[in-house]
Amino acid sequence: MSTDTESPRGQSTAELMGGILGDLQHLVDQQFHLIRQEIEIDARRYIRAVVLCAVGVGVWLTSAVVACLGLSQLLHWSTSPTSTDPASLPLWACHAVVAGILAPIGGLLLWMGRAEMKLRSYSKGSTTP
Predict the structure, then answer these.
(1) Which of 69, 46, 62, 49 has the alpha carbon at shortest distance from 106?
(2) pLDDT averaged over consecutive 10-residue blocks of the chain (129 residues)?
(3) How many whole angstroms separate alpha carbon 80 and alpha carbon 77?
(4) Nearest-5° Cα angle at 17, 15 to 22
(5) Is 52 exposed, middle or buried (0-12, 13-18, 19+ CB in 10 A)?
(6) How many domains does the chain have?
(7) What is the pLDDT of residue 95?
């Protein structure tokens, strides 16, 4: 692309217009390439956020199922005759410990996915949280 402000001798108006149109086509091609790269970056961020949220929901739902199992075991344990469970830690307590570990992990993954979604929306220029 020439930066001269004066037209070189020997070039016709048609040649100059052809050069301008060629430069314009080059700029349009660069703009399309840039837009495509931005879309690909946004798609990768969106996919990462969705995966984090999906895994978080899965872990959190697993925690809920384990907590329900623990509640049913607690009901069984509380209605059983004394000294029928030789374990030092009842089964319902084991379920409660596992659910207590899984629930914050699932919540953390959901929070991370939500934060990634917010980051994605802020990078687009949105000001709403």
Answers:
(1) 62
(2) 59 87 94 95 92 94 94 88 81 92 94 85 58
(3) 5
(4) 95
(5) buried
(6) 1
(7) 93
Check residue 125 and give its pLDDT: 61
Q: Tell me the CA end-to-end span of the chain in Å, nearest whole number.
A: 44
In a domain, 22, yes or no: yes
Residue 23 lies in a domain: yes
pLDDT of residue 14: 86
In a domain, 85, yes or no: yes
Nearest to 49 by CA among 57, 60, 59, 37: 57
Domain that holds residue 50: 13-123
> How far, in whole angstroms, is CA 18 from its chain's centroid?
46
Q: What are the tokens at 20?
A: 């301008």
